[in-house]
Amino acid sequence: MGHSNSSSPSKRGHARKWQLLDLVSGVFFFLVLLFFVMVFTPLGDSLAASGRQTLLLSGADSRHRHQLVEAVETAGRGVEACPADMADYMPCEDPRLNSQLSREMNYYRERHCPRPEDSPLCLIPPPSGYRVPVPWPESLHKIWHSNMPYNKIADRKGHQGWMKLEGQHFIFPGGGTMFPDGAEQYIEKLGQYIPISGGVLRTALDMGCGVASFGGFLLSHNILTMSFAPRDSHKAQIQFALERGIPAFVAMLGTRRLPFPAFGFDLVHCSRCLIPFTAYNASYFIEVDRLLRPGGYLVISGPPVQWPKQDKEWSDLQAVARALCYELIAVDGNTVIWKKLAGETCLPNENEFGLELCDESDDPSQAWYFKLKKCVSRTSVKGDYAIGVIPKWPERLTTTPPRSTLLKNGVDLYEADTKRWVRRVAHYKNHLKIKLGSGSVRNVMDMNALFGGFAAAAKSDPVWVMNVVPAQKPPTLDVIFDRGLIGVYHDWCEPFSTYPRSYDLIHVASIESLIKDPASGKNRCTLVDLMVEIDRILRPEGTVVVRDAPEVIDKVARIAGAVRWKPTIYDKEPESHGREKILVATKTLWKL
């Protein structure tokens, strides 16, 4: 008989015990190691921030969001800080989400906002090393590198004069791809063909603006330029523009109308903006025509204007301009200048693009989430607002705008609003000590602008004002542009299309009306979400001014403490009627 090789039962039992002890010891030492990694190393900080961000953005968090909002609103519970990697977070232009969308007509680069319940309820932190911005007008030429430490544009475009890094600052020589010798020389060249000086032109649109040097240097000619570009591979170009104190806005000419009124811009400019104006049956040229004031000027520099291997594109561009009866002013190298008809359009006519007038029911100023149309907007409305007829700047600011007459009781309402804001802004300066006249306040927003009375009353101060007309309120933005001011349509139940830390001062009258449904009077969103968004776009040490009924101001003050502002409540001006109170708050400069 052979011998058995199996072990005894007692030996097998001891082996299993040792295996179990080995496993327990291994798990124990792994947990100890993990503890040290999480507590004492940068990896732990990173993992913790990532986990916190995941929680903020997760569905589990959204289930508790309502309770959190209620706690902030009723008890002033503090809103926590977002993770450090959200320092430049733009909810509606988030490349992590939007990159999954269709590329057709650049749809993925347009606004796509998360639902409120899916949005993180936290305060955006400043980047490490953030400093109070360089004051105006020095900021036109230099900004702190630490406020937006992104070297990509300086590295790639420095040789074209866009910007360069020098020590602690980014320096802006004033150049651009099509004007590497500087915007001033380029503007001087354009002045040979169009009336740059003298107040004939006041509002301009710069499409695909880069760091907005063109708009920055037009300011010395009293031309106020809305510069826009998408959030794209040139990271932070609009952020650089705003840090410089130049009016700018994140937008993309894609599938929708831009959020501006019809016939508002005296000058539309594209310097190598690479917009395919003749594509999609000339849809983008038609949108430019909608925005351009009768008698206004269109300037395109760069491709396809007399550009190598783009003969067909250049030919098509000229054909569209002819179809719209634009007057060719000049072709100077790679720059073309056209002038739009000051009177009625020349359509209908025979043209290869099949361009036709929109029907009478079309409202050309409807522009909030409004799809591009393939028809040309009519200009035959009451009130003459063409270049050459509308008053020159600065008389234009105080003359009753032509299109205010289209509103019921428009003229009386406009004149009363103008006088009211002259009184109010004087009170802000003299009694509330709001620093509108100092270099520390440059970028200003009026969240509920109506006719732009607040901005008009600040005309003597070194500021520019983004006049926002809420999409749910009467569409008065055309009146604001007729006055020679600029602004956009926006719904304040969504985040604004700008980077964090864009504005030095944010002003809002009747804040609660921004979140209410005009028909039902019910809230469409929460005051907490709105104030967290205001905090996102306000600079540290910036100022918020809120006017509303006392009970609303008390609620705003409670939330202000929760978002780390320092609020003070004042009585209204002695001359004002109604029950208003005024809250003035300062955003604190805090760090993670």
From TrEMBL:
GO MF annotations in UniProt: S-adenosylmethionine-dependent methyltransferase activity
Example of a GO cellular component annotation carried by this entry: endosome
GO biological process: methylation
Similarity annotation: Belongs to the methyltransferase superfamily.
Lineage: Eukaryota, Viridiplantae, Streptophyta, Embryophyta, Tracheophyta
Gene3D superfamilies in the cross-refs: Vaccinia Virus protein VP39
Protein name listed in UniProt: Methyltransferase
Organism: Phaseolus coccineus (Scarlet runner bean)
SUPFAM superfamilies, alphabetized: S-adenosyl-L-methionine-dependent methyltransferases
One Pfam family hit: Methyltransf_29
Localisation: Endomembrane system; Membrane
Keywords for this protein: Glycoprotein, Membrane, Methyltransferase, Signal-anchor, Transferase, Transmembrane, Transmembrane helix
UniProt EC number: 2.1.1.-
InterPro entries: Put_SAM_MeTrfase, SAM-dependent_MTases_sf
Superkingdom of origin: Eukaryota
TM stretches of this protein: 20-40
Membrane topology: Single-pass membrane protein; Single-pass type II membrane protein
